[in-house]
Write a structure and sequence with these properties.
single chain, alpha/beta, Rossmann fold, 9 helices
Length: 253
Amino acid sequence: MADAARLFDLTGRVAVVTGASSGLGRRAAVTLAAAGAQVVGVARRKDALADLCSEIGKAAAYVVADVADRAALGDLVTALTTPFGSPDIVVHAAGINTREAADDVTPEAWDTTLALNLSAPFFLSQALVPAMKAKRWGRIVNFASLQTTRAFPGGIAYGATKAGIGQLTRAMAEAWSRDGINANAIGPGFFPTELTEAVFSDPDRAARNAAQTCMQRNGRLEDLDGPLLFLCSDASSYVTGQVLMVDGGFTAK
């Protein structure tokens, strides 16, 4: 019988977390480090990343970068591999939601949303995959959304990218799982982060969202810890190409 604790143990693994300066990305970095991984956080805000590393300690490092800047991808990969070696795990938590109505979306906002939410997870993963192939072990975790399958007002660009994440995850699994690299996605419900500040700043709106879940509450950051560890560890050795909704049953109703 397998040792349950060892299934989730990330000792000896190196993880990269994008969007690690706040919200779900920061929580992911802290969670993976607590499970034994050495973690490299990536974001654009140096002070927030430095604070994250102070919290985690010597098992953390950071890189200040815009993951959507494709021209700098080579330099980014070099920077990510410098602190602890080539990553075994990449968690794509960086994202943007411009919250524009369909009639008001500009080409600039559309391109920015696609570049960060959809293109960056693919091209960064593509660049990190060769080292994972060499080890015959890797974990890619994308961030999907309620809008992967649901249409929300003011979310046409964001929703398009998150629907794309669902298919990107399946396509990554098809391409790379034979080499020992599992690709999955987490689909969070409503969690209090900077990205959802507009939602949680309105108590009535937050309450309506909670009422739409099976659990009758919105998410807490700790609700993501278990699903994330599952998808980043040996516990998910035969799970790939899946979108795991962590939404309190919002999409089940």
